[in-house]
Amino acid sequence: MIKLLITPSEKASSSFLNAVKNSSRKNTLCVLCSKSLLLIETKVKDACKGKTCSFIDTVSESKEQNVVYIPPANLTALSIAINQTQQSFKDKSTIIFDSISGLAVRNNPNTLIKFLLFLIKKSTDWGSDLILILPEKTMPEDFIATLSSSVDKVEKRK
Amino acid sequence: MKNKKKNLNEKGKVKCIIPQITVVAGIVFLLHVLFISFGFFGLNKNLFGNLFIALISFLAFLSMFCLYKKFPHNFPMERKAKLFLLISTFLFFLGDFIWFAEEVFLQEIILLGGWPDLCWTLGYLALIISTQFFIKIEFRESKILLGILIFVAIILGGLFLYFDITANLSQGNLSFGSLIQDLYPIYDLVLFAMIIYLLWPLIITRNSYFLGWFWLGFGVLTRLAYDIIFVMLNKKSLYYTGHPIDLLYDLFYIFIILNSLHKSNLLGSQGIKKI
Asked: HSE of B110 in the Cβ direction (CA atoms, 13 Å)?
């Protein structure tokens, strides 16, 4: 299931934690684009209880073992890190982006949409669930329209 | 009943023996180093010199076979890439084995451009196709850089080919076999360019993901060095089985085995590991 979750900006963080907590798969890969793991570590660890969580942090480096830092402008490295983490999981997994607009700071919307469409195709191949959280009014309308037409489900939170 | 079923399932699985293959390959390589350094197998240089190479190339093929069997089915592109890598290691092994059989059992003088060269050339082709599939796995906004790198590789390889053909022509040594030999450095350079392209985005990130490509990149570099030195030595009729450059040839396979070991360790490791 590929899901786009459009949420008010102030609720993006709680939506992300809920998505981690409620993900049906045991293995979860969290891609952090707006807040570093250092800032939300306790909350995320709570949400990850009983699951195997791995993290890709695009905000800052961490000393934790299950975290890798990928600069947000390096979408190729990000695609490889996501791919390799999927391979490392024994079962199928859920990939959750805490805020896709966080990547837009260092990438133009055209590149970002290409990257997300690439990732949607790959997630379908891998049989993984993909949840993309998008804070409201952070991306142009045509970006949202293109993305909405490529996912299985669009959910708007109020 | 349940236990029986469990046992059957376990039996059906391919046992991964890549760590053991790596250890055996390390021992064979060490023996080859000792053989070349001290010549303690002086009884038959051709037999042992070729045997070590054929053994290591077989171990590289075996490690790739184990990895391919272990690789999950929900990664179709990666499986295609791994399949071509497996075909490539098989063809390299076949080339080495034919060389070994011709030189040791048939005691024939091996002509360049024969069956082993056909196997190695096809092996290179499979390796290039495999690398192309690996490139498709990554997200790339544009492939201009790859085009530039391959262009530079072909120019450099072309220059090598040009100077070698001119030298061969002036000495009256130009043959089909020498031409086939001269093409190997071009394949190596093209492969190296493709691996640099694959590796580049990962070099700046401090995680273990780049290690597999790092090993394969090193492997191709050693093969490139071997191919260039071999062409030069062979031209002066200075190459013989058991020559120290055979160790470079071994290293190509050793690095392929290390690549499979790294990948095998990654599968099922449940998450990201730092290095």
From this structure: 25
